[in-house]
Design a protein that fits this description.
9-stranded mixed β-sheet; about 35% helix
Length: about 260
């Protein structure tokens, strides 16, 4: 995989892993093809991901949720992806191939977390996500699952819930925080000045199950490594967008390997 994820290129590096390095390149290519013809690649995918989780277990606090998309012919690839954050690196833990265009639904996000919780203990972790992931039932599901969250909100989101909240808004040097109830769970909204000089978005809005304003505002800024992860997977060497695999199982397997 030194150059890309293309199997025709990868065959040149296979002899380094084999005892018999005199095998012809064509034989290496056939071996790779047979590997991706596994009847049940999901078992290997799960084994790879659980190994990664055990490797970094206890060394991370934050999870990041986002999606990446591309096309294989006429078939859309839409990977709704959950990553762990290790230092400044986002490492995929689990994903669903939604095979559609557009945003994921809250039902699909709940299914992603449900399946991930069957493999990993994620209770007590803090999920970071952007403005596309603000559905009330979805956020309530995270609370029920024992996963905290910090989500950026678009301006004007949840105005009724805020106006009806009995708790006062607490002003701090670097913003405002107000607590209210959402789907039966206590959450906090934090409003701070945008550190970037952006006339269109002078303020930033966050919704969180946490109660510390500074921790909420600073946690959100940690979510950017998932974009770097997607960039590396798709363009900078691994070139997943160039794969011709059309079967979901093969796509899931090669992503797990990468």
């Amino acid at each position: 995989m030194a150059r890309s994820t293309n199997l025709n290129l990868l065959k040149d590096y296979l002899p380094q892993l084999l005892v018999n390095e005199k095998t012809k390149p064509a034989s290496h290519y056939k071996r790779l093809i047979r590997f991706f013809q596994l009847r049940n690649p999901n078992q290997l995918v799960i084994a790879i991901l659980q190994f990664v989780f055990r490797l970094f277990k206890g060394r991370f606090t934050y999870l990041i949720l986002d999606a990446t998309t591309w096309q294989v012919g006429q078939r859309p690839v839409h990977l709704l992806t959950l990553c762990l954050l290790l230092d400044n690196t986002a490492i995929p833990l689990y994903w669903l191939q939604l095979a559609k265009k557009g945003h994921s639904s809250q039902v699909e996000r709940q299914e992603l977390i449900r399946q991930a919780l069957q493999l990993y203990r994620l209770q007590g972790k803090i999920l970071l996500a952007d403005r596309a992931y603000i559905d009330q039932q979805w956020l309530a599901y995270l609370c029920q699952s024992g996963i905290d969250f910090v989500i950026r909100l678009p301006e004007g989101c949840y105005p009724i819930a805020l106006s009806e909240a009995p708790e006062p808004a607490y002003r701090r040097k670097r913003g405002v925080m107000k607590a209210f109830t959402l789907q039966g769970f206590c959450v906090s909204m934090v409003i701070i000045k945008n550190p970037k000089d952006d006339l269109d978005q002078p303020l930033l809005y966050f919704l969180s199950s946490l109660t510390h304003k500074v921790k909420i505002s600073e946690a959100y800024r940690l979510g950017w490594p998932i974009e770097t992860c997607f960039k590396h997977l798709k363009t900078q060497g691994f070139n997943l967008e160039n794969l011709t695999f059309k079967e979901d199982g093969k796509i899931m397997l090669v992503v797990a390997m990468v």
